Amino acid sequence: MGQIRRLILILFVFFAVGGGALVLGFYGYGVAGRIAERSEESVAASNRALGQKLLDRIERVIIDGDRNFFRLVSLDDPREFKALWRRIVRLSPAVNGVLVLDERGRVIHLVAQIAEKKERRRFRTFVNDVIVPDLALDKLPPEEHRHLHRSYQGKRFLFSYIRRHPTGAPDYFVLLQLNVPYFIEEVFEAEFGSVASSARISVLDDNGEPLFGQAIEEIGSLVFDENFPTTLYKWRLQVAPKALAEMSDQGRQRQYGDLALVASAVGIIIMGLAVIFFALRQEQRANALKSVFIANVTHELKTPLSIIRMFSELLALRGAKDAAALREYAEIITRESDRLSGLIDNVLDFSRIEGGKAAYHFAESDMTGVVQRVATLVAYRCEQAGVKLNVDLPSDLPRLMMDESAMILLLLNLVENAIKYGVRSEGAEIGLHLRRSDSKVLLTVSDNGPGIAKDERRRIFDRFYRSKSAQDSGTRGSGIGLSLVKHIAEAHGGRVSVRGDLGKGSIFEVCIPFD
Ligand code: ADP
Hints:
The protein is an alpha+beta fold.
C-alpha cells in the first residue's frame, strides 16, 4: 500500500512539474513572440509614417506647382497670354502645355512644347475628343482644382485643371499638361533620394510595372503600398525598410531560436524528472533487495551456527561414540565455522566496498600460487560434495601486480558457487584453468551444473541479486558473492563475464591485464 502511495506521489510530482514546465514553456514562447510582434509593429508604424510622408510630399510638389501656374494664367489680353506662356512653357520643366477651354469645354488657346503645326493640331483634337469628355467640367465648381491621370496609346498623361469664374465674363477652364517623365526622373529622384539609404522605394504604374526603383514583391505589414491620392492616382507608392528580407529572416530565426530554447528547457526539466524518477525507482529496488539480503544473511548465519551448536552440545552432553564419530563431529564443526567466517568475510568486504572504503594492497605476486591455494582450500569441500576438481595451470605465467587476499576471495567465491550450484548432477566436475592470452591472464572457473539463463547473465553481478532458480531450489546464498568478484576484477583493471549453455554448465572468466 505504502509503495503504491509513493508511486502515486512520484507520478503526481512528475506530471505536476512536467505540466508546469510545459505551461511555463508555452508562456515563455508566447511572451517572446509578443515582444517580437511589438518590435515588428513599431517598425511597420514608422515605415507607414514614412510612406505617408513621401506620398504627401509628391502631392504637395505637384499641387503647389499647379497653383503657381494657375495664378499666372489670365485671359485679360490673349496676345500677352500667348507670349508669356510660350516663354514659361519653354522654360518650365514641369509643364508641357497650357490650354484654355471655353465655357463649353472647347479648346480656345493652346500653348505647348510641340514644334510642328500638324502635331499641335492633333494634340488639340486629342484633348477635345479624348481628354475633355473625361474631365466632367460641367460638374466642376469654380476654383476647384483637379487632376486627370491616364494612359493613352502607350503614353502617360497627367492633366491638372481648374474652373475660372471671372466677374462679368463667362467661365473658362485652364488645363495644364504636366511633364510626366520630369516627375519620374527629377521629382521622384529628388524626393526619394534622401531616404534611399534606409528604405526601399518604388513607384508602380497601373499595370504593376515599376517606374521608379524595383517592385517590392514581399507582402506583409512591413510594406507600405498605396496609390497617390489625388494627382498620380493610377500609380502606387511602395515603401519598405531596407533590411526587409533580413528582418523577416531574423524574425523567423528568432522564432525558431525561441522555440528551440523553450523546447530544450522543457526537455531538460523533463529529463531531470525522469532521472529523479529513475533514481527513486533504483533506490526503491535497492531497498527491497537489501531487506532480502538481510533475511538471507541472517538465515545463512543461523544455519551453520545452529549446526555448530547442535554438535558441540552433543559432544558436551554425550560425548562421541568412538574416535571416528568424534572426528566427524569436529569436521562438521570446522566446516560450518569455515562457512561462517567465509560469509562474515564476504559481508565485511562487501560493506567496505559499499562504503567506498575498499582498499587494495597491490604487490607483485604469482597467480598460479593463488589458484593452488584456493584449490587446496576447497579440496575437502569438493571431496565431501563428490565433485571432481580439475586444475590446469601453465608454467610460464608472469608475476602480476595484485592484492593476493582479494584475488583469493574472488576465486573462492567463484569455486564455492560452482560447488553450490554445480553439484546437482551426477559426475559433477569443476574446472579451474589459468592461461595467458597476449597481455592478459585468463582465469576460468567452469562447472557442469544447470548454467545461467541468458537474460540473467548480466544481473547476477548486481549486488543482492539471486536468480529465481537459486531461490526456488532453496540454495543458500546472500547475493553479494558475484558483485564482490566483479569489484575485485575491476579493481585489477580487468573484468568478469559468464557464458555457457543452459543445462550444460557455466563458465566464469576473469580477465586480468598485465604489462
Ligand atoms: P549467492 O549468494 O546467491 O550465491 P552470488 O552473487 O554469488 O550470490 O550469485 C548470484 C546468483 O548467480 C546466484 O543466486 C545464482 O543464481 C547465480 N550463480 C552464481 N554462480 C553460479 C553457477 N556456477 N551456476 C549457476 N548459477 C550460478
